Amino acid sequence: MTIETLAARFQKSKGQPIQLGSDTVCAMYQMPISAGGHVLRILRASAKANPVQGLRLKIGGGELLINGQILSDIVLWADNSPKEVAVSISATKDTVLKIWNVWSIGGAMNAWIGNAGMLVAETDDNIWLRCSDGIGDVDFSDLVVSVDLHSDVGSI
Predict the structure, then answer these.
(1) Which of 5, 57, 146, 156 has its CA 20 to 30 A from that of 28?
(2) pLDDT (tens digit, 9 = 90+) per residue, 69-88?
(3) In which domain of life is the source organism classified (predicted)?
(4) What is the helix (H) or strand (E) element at residue 26, kind and residue range?
(5) First to last CA, the chain
(6) What would the pLDDT profile of 115-142 be if each residue is shown by its tens digit?
(7) 8, 113 Cβ separation under 8 angstroms
(8) Strand 62-66 relative to strand 84-91: parallel, antiparallel, unpaired?
């Protein structure tokens, strides 16, 4: 019996969340961002060393400021970014920040293949993303991060 991968199930659902037992699994987390300035704080609680894990953030209708660079798309790799990161967000309109897990094999970034997916747990204080890379069995401990969004009076 062949077990269907998360990627195959996401393809059938057209990218919508899927059920895995009692868990709802997402291919990406979409965080609503209102117009104006914000600070997104990211804490990497744990990450598997091999393959190198990363967190990708992408915004339309806004900019991300990190390490003195203004970008719309960034990747925070577990092997070369701080455990805690603050990203300033300047949104010109109400928009969505897309967040998903990636991993690197031989220098090539991978995402959304095999058993890649994430469990999302929203609490009063933050949002926990427990990510499975696409390699091997589903393992939501491959990359574990928390994110929390704060309004900021300044903008980029």
Answers:
(1) 156
(2) 999 999 999 999 999 999 99
(3) Bacteria
(4) strand 23-26
(5) 53
(6) 999 999 999 889 999 999 999 999 999 9
(7) no
(8) antiparallel
Q: Alpha helices of the chain — where are they, by DSSP H?
A: 6-12
For residue 51, give the DSSP letter: T
What is the number of other CB atoms lying within 10 angstroms of the CB of residue 95?
17
Nearest-CA neighbor of 119 among 110, 128, 111? 128
Residue 153 is predicted with a pLDDT of 54
Q: Which domains does the chain have, with CATH numbers?
A: 6-152 (2.60.120)
- Rounded to whole angstroms, the Cα distance separating 111 from 78 reads 15
Contact 39, 86 (CB under 8 A): yes
State both tokens at 12: 């059938």
**Residue (of 116, 120, 118) closest to 136 by Cα position:** 116
